[in-house]
Amino acid sequence: MPRIYGAEDYRPDDETQKALLTQLGFLDADIAADLVLFFSMVNGLRADLKAIALGQLDNLSIADKIPLIELDLKLWDDTQALGRKIVARL
Fold first, then answer.
1. Are 86 and 35 in contact (CB under 8 A)?
2. What is the distance between the alpha carbons of residues 66 and 72, in angstroms, rounded to a whole number?
3. What number is the average pLDDT over the span 32-57?
4. What's the pTM?
5. Which sequence spans correspond to the domains of the chain?
């Protein structure tokens, strides 16, 4: 996924994530791995949305923004699918 410069200061502080991550050792290894991947995907999307909201992409042309948005939309679809898979397995 392309890096959006300017979102480096993003630090996840989601209490749900913190609570769930402390319980990873109680899960099967494959579910724990998928959960970590899921949260990584969510955090990537959050960082990109923050950068967009702060105007850090404003200097890019429309032609440069389109592929970034398309990649984020694909990541959103993949994240939702993985989330549904995790919920079904839990």
1. yes
2. 10
3. 89
4. 0.74
5. 28-89
